TrEMBL record:
It comes from Deinococcus multiflagellatus. This is Acyl-CoA carboxylase subunit beta. Residues 267-513 form the CoA carboxyltransferase C-terminal domain. Transmembrane segments: none annotated. It comes from the Bacteria. Keywords: Ligase.
Length: 520
């Protein structure tokens, strides 16, 4: 005769035994190997990412249904740990691929665990964070594993802009697998231990005869400096996971909400005198735009996005009086701040990200124009530059433009002029708005006069001076209402904060459409 109490204990023990087996992943040997080189296990990563004790696991006992080639193969937890938790008290959903189980490869049921939490995230309006460390499609499951990817990609796309999706790349991410992170809002990579590529070094060698290592092909350096695929690079797993927490602080839970405000001790009325030392009036001399940003924002804290790629434009998140803002700024120190293809792509993408998630945009303008050159024209600068124009016009969040120095030509428009939809445009006394710089303008407009002059150099100099007098200042544009005010540099922080406060409840309607057709 069985005693009821003992039976219950057996059931509990059986559950615990099963759970312990799942939690062991690929077993002690593989877990030990995983930790070589400072990497964390899938479960440790979740612990570091989330608030202590907040993780609630889902799909713990899911098993593969992998068909003939998977018979007898054990895959504890199906190679991925999934569930919900909180970050700074806010709910998020997370999947963490477990490389110790069949290389974290993705089969049909592994994908089902991931799509389950993606769907829950969408239903509850919360961000999804993917911790990627996987050998890609599970070869033994054939087309079923490709279908699993399809189910994830589909959700990445349809939930895009509805809930924030963040991808941390902490190991291999190869083949078609790269397209899930690529469809998310942000990609963060760990230096030296993660890589992303479509076809690996061996295939490349056989097709193109190029010799390349994993890291040279698709390491964090490559993707944060050359390709622009990834947004942020960190040293090791823990730093990446802290980076995810940091980034989420600037984002809302979903497209219906605003990002959380963070109390600050930095006074809203703090004067910004340092700007008078940073910004040089001489239009030809560069100055550090990063310092301008640090001086304006709360506590000098700026989370720059894609800092290593297309450095001629600066984008990132900061706070003004506690409220999250996205900043887009020309960088006069790199390529004289001109806009090229990569800068246009980087800015357009960032503007759209801010707009999806109700983050107001501050644009700091110091730009001579689009980068001239055959290479840029032939690579489609027209198509890429158009993305910036489109993104600014499309964005309905509060938009303030501040012209810090020069703003010329098509780039004046691409940097969100009044006509492109800026709600308020300010300029500093150092600003100049014109179709082009005085030298170029004088040479075109007064060419005949200069050529026919007895002293062409003197005439050219005189015409340049005349043109500068007429246009190299903010007052012509201000007199026509293109600039709302020319403001003292030292009062800029206060004015920006007050203006964003004024725009806080702004609403802007757009005509009905299925979706716009941004030039891609
Ligand atoms: C749509 C797509 O994703 S297409 C891409 C398909 N994926 C691939 O082509 C990658 C194939 N895998 C690899 O090239 C390598 O495993 C690498 C480079 C990712 C990692 O190499 P290593 O760190 O040396 O790990 P290793 O090769 O030992 O793999 C670890 C384990 O995962 C298994 N594994 C690796 N890739 C896969 C896979 N795609 N499917 C199933 N199991 C796999 C290995 O058999 C090994 O199992 P074991 O622990 O029982 O021995």
């Amino acid at each position: 005769m069985t005693q009821p109490g003992i039976e219950l204990q057996e059931l509990i023990a059986a559950m615990e035994q099963r759970r312990a087996k799942v939690e062991q992943g690929g077993g002690p040997e593989r877990l030990k190997k995983q930790k070589q080189g400072g990497k964390l296990t899938a479960r440790e990563r979740i612990e570091v990412l989330l608030d202590p004790g907040s993780f609630l696991e889902m799909g713990t006992f899911v098993e593969h249904r992998g068909g003939r080639l998977m018979q007898g193969v054990e895959a504890p937890g199906e190679g991925v740990v999934t569930g919900r938790g909180t970050i700074d008290g806010r709910q998020v959903f997370v999947f963490s691929q477990d490389f110790t189980v069949l290389g974290g490869s993705l089969g049909k049921m592994n994908a089902a665990k991931v799509t389950k939490i993606m769907d829950l995230a969408a239903k509850t309006g919360c961000p999804v964070i993917g911790l990627n460390d996987s050998a890609g499609a599970r070869i033994q499951e054939g087309v079923d594993s490709l279908s699993g990817y399809g189910e994830i990609f589909y959700r990445n796309a349809i939930y895009s802009g509805a809930i924030p999706q963040i991808s941390a790349i902490l190991g291999p991410c190869a083949g078609g697998a790269v397209y899930s992170p690529a469809l998310t809002d942000f990609i963060l990579m760990s230096e030296g231990s993660s890589y992303m590529f479509i076809t690996g070094p061996e295939v490349i060698k056989s097709v193109t005869r190029e010799d390349v290592t994993f890291d040279q092909l698709g390491g964090a350096d490559v993707h944060t400096r050359k390709s622009g695929v990834a947004h942020l690079e960190y040293d090791g797993d823990e730093a990446v996971l802290r980076g995810v927490r940091d980034l989420l602080g600037y984002l809302p839970q979903n497209a219906h909400e605003k990002a959380p405000a963070l109390p600050t001790n930095d006074p809203a009325t703090r004067t910004t005198e340092k700007l008078l030392e940073i910004v040089v009036p001489d239009q030809r001399k560069p100055y550090p735009m990063h310092d301008v940003i640090h001086e304006l924002v709360d506590d000098g804290t700026f989370l720059e996005i894609q800092p290593g790629w297309a450095k001629n434009i600066i984008v990132g998140f900061a706070r003004l009086n506690g409220e999250s803002v996205g900043i887009v700024a020309n960088n006069p120190r790199v390529m004289a701040g001109t806009l090229n293809i990569d800068a246009s792509d980087k800015a357009a993408r960032f503007i759209r990200t801010c707009d999806c998630y109700n983050i107001p945009i501050l644009t700091l303008v110091d730009v001579t124009g689009f980068l001239p050159g055959v290479a840029q024209e032939h690579a489609g600068i027209i198509r890429h530059g158009a993305k910036m124009l489109y993104a600014y016009a499309e964005a309905t969040v509060p938009k303030i433009t501040l012209i810090t120095r020069k703003s010329y030509g098509g780039a004046y428009l691409a940097m969100n002029s009044r006509d492109m939809g800026a709600d308020v445009v300010y300029a500093w006394p150092t600003a100049a708005v014109a179709v082009m710089g005085a030298e170029g303008a004088a040479n075109i407009v007064y060419r005949r006069e200069i050529q026919q002059s007895e002293n062409p150099d003197a005439t050219r100099a005189q015409k340049i001076a005349e043109y500068k007098d007429a246009f190299d200042n903010p007052y012509v544009a201000a007199s026509k209402g293109y600039i709302d005010d020319v403001i003292p540099m030292e009062d800029t922080r206060r004015i920006l904060i007050q203006t964003f406060e004024m725009l806080r409840d702004k609403e802007e309607a757009r005509p009905y459409k299925k979706h716009g057709n941004i030039p891609l």
